[in-house]
Amino acid sequence: MKRPPRTTDGTTTTDDAALDATFEALADADCRAILAAATTPKTTSELAEDCDIALSTAYRKVELLSETPLFAEGIRFDPGGDHAAEYVRDTANAAIELGDDGVALTVDNEGSDPLAAASDAPGVSAD
User: Fold this and answer.
1) Does residue 106 belong to any structural domain of this protein?
2) How far does CA 52 lie from the centroid of its chain?
3) Measured between alpha carbons, how far is 126 from 102 in angstroms, rounded to an integer?
4) Does any domain span residue 102?
5) Which of 18, 71, 85, 104 lies 20 to 30 A from 61 at CA?
6) For residue 124, is it within any domain?
7) What is the spatial distance between Cα 54 and Cα 75, in angstroms, rounded to a whole number?
8) Region Disordered: what ranges (predicted)?
9) What whole-number distance in Å separates Cα of residue 119 and Cα of residue 4?
10) What's the domain range around 31?
11) Where does residue 52 rank: exposed (0-12), middle (13-18), buried (19+ CB within 10 A)?
12) For residue 4, is it within any domain?
């Protein structure tokens, strides 16, 4: 399950699947390392190298992180036609709220714009 499209003002979720995936990812050291490394858009291979983890492990962790509101997926366009998926941390802050209605996760996306970051990458042009 992929998460819904990002908003620019922050999101709050009480969806059990999203909460479970987020808590599972945050409890995993490799996922936390990937989140720390993904301050700029990177491919899974680049994340594996930066985090010193096996590529197969990186693919599994990226898949898990993609089910959370913490991570965004984009496309790295290659003029030669060899496009690749790239990922970036998609949050500035996250807060867990425990209320009468249960648990809620609020993710603040303010100031985080992976699409703008991707378009600022070298070799990327809108032309």
Assistant:
1) yes
2) 18
3) 44
4) yes
5) 104
6) no
7) 22
8) 107-127
9) 22
10) 11-112
11) exposed
12) no
CB neighbour list of residue 65: distance below 8 Å, 6 or more residues apart: 25, 31, 34, 35, 71, 87
Count of structural domains within the chain: 1
The CATH number given to whatever domain includes residue 91 is 1.10.10.10
Query: Residue 24 is encoded by which pair of tokens?
Result: 């599972």
For residue 93, what is the enclosing H or E element? strand 93-99
pLDDT digits (tens, 9 = 90+) for 13-67: 778 888 999 999 999 999 999 999 999 999 999 999 999 999 999 999 999 999 9
Nearest by Cα to 6 from 99, 76, 92: 92
Residue whose tokens read 């994340």: 47
Residues 6 or more apart from 92 whose CB is under 8 A from it? 108, 109, 110, 111, 112
For residue 59, the one-letter residue type is Y
Are 90 and 6 in contact by the 8 Å Cβ rule? The answer is yes
Q: Is 116 helix (H, G, I), strand (E, B) or coil?
A: helix
